[in-house]
Amino acid sequence: MKKWIRKVKNNNRIIILYLSTIVIMISLFITIYSKEYSSSDEVFEINNESVSKAEFSNLMMALKGNVYSYIVQKYGGGDSAKFWTTSFNGEVPEEILKKQTFEKLKKIKVEQILFKKYGIVGDISYPGFLKALENENIRREKAVEKKEPIFGPVKYDERIYYDYLQASNIEKLKNKLLKIDLSSTDEEIKKYYNEKKEELYKKPDSIKFQKISISCLDEKGNITSDSKAHAKETMDKMIIDIENNVNFSDVRNTYINKTAAKIEYKEQSVNGDIDRDANNIIDGLNGLQVGQVSQVLEGADSLYIVRKNEVTPTGFLLLSDVKSKIMYVLADEKFNEMVERLIKEVNININSKVYKSIAA
Asked: 74: Cβ–Cβ under 8 A, 6 or more apart, which residues?
């Protein structure tokens, strides 16, 4: 009897141990499975930050037009119902679109990881973004009700607010890092200034020129097709005379008695930055060599030609005047280099099943 009882107890221990092992294995399987597919819509994970199918699709829609235009311009065939899955000489639009979306999201997520690292934002998940979007639209709606000023739309949609928020946070991050990781030495600033001086910091030249204009107004003070055509015909004749070595300043005197139109001659100058935006004369002078005459140009109520007579360089903007701008330019370059370097260093895990399930 005692032997039988001991046997039963031993069997119970074996059963309990067996059941415990099964429970542990099931729990372990669930843990592993959950870790690999913790979200049924996770497309990929970058440094433990998840990219959901919703976020992927949102950006993919923004890139869709560019891919469509690229394929249609290169191969045609945009009207096909199977356009996105058709192979055009080995290029499948859907695959191109998904790859471009993936590459762009890698960059965006690296930037967002930096936002989080430096305290610009606390939550970089897509649900966190959607909550921020909801709060911002509620704030805007209340502001409109109270007749308070708001900038931008009354209500943001996902795509627009996503881009806006990303750009805004990048600027906040750059400003925060400007005196740390993105700072530049005086030597770097001076080097950039000297390299770009001719291209970016040259002051506009001072230009002396002559101008002849013919009014397009008729005797009633109106511009008609006939009065404009007559002015153009006269101006074309003047240009021919100038090309045949008639002195520019004498042309006006030659034609003033041949036409009823009002003809004016002036000697003028554009001094550096002064009067640069006054009218479109600068457009006429651009590209002309000294001594050259422009084509016929159109003013508000007249046609005119200009002759460039003299060009005097006015020097360069001082380094002290552009130093702060150069600091920001160099900060942009260093920020982009930082992001590109981090993109190469991040760990990425792709959920192939979800990635393949995404359709254009």
From this structure: 88, 91
Mean pLDDT confidence for 159-183: 93
CA distance linking residue 215 with residue 205, whole number of Å: 29
Spatial CB neighbours of 66, under 8 Å, sequence gap ≥ 6: 100
Cβ–Cβ under 8 Å, residues 169 and 284: no
Tokens 């309990």 correspond to 16
Please give the radius of gyration of the chain, using alpha carbons only, rounded to the nearest integer: 36
Token pair 């003033």: residue: 256
Q: What are phi and psi of 348, to 5 degrees?
A: -125, 130
Q: Which residues pair with 50 in a beta bridge?
A: 45
Taking the C-alpha atoms of residue 353 and residue 54, their distance in angstroms, rounded to an integer, is: 15
Do 342 and 110 meet the contact criterion of CB atoms below 8 Å apart?
yes
Residue 181 has pLDDT above 90, yes or no: no
Q: Supply the pTM of this predicted model.
A: 0.68
For the chain, what is the mean pLDDT? 85
CB 56 within 8 A of CB 358: yes
Q: Which of 341, 347, 355 is nearest to 49 (CA)?
A: 347
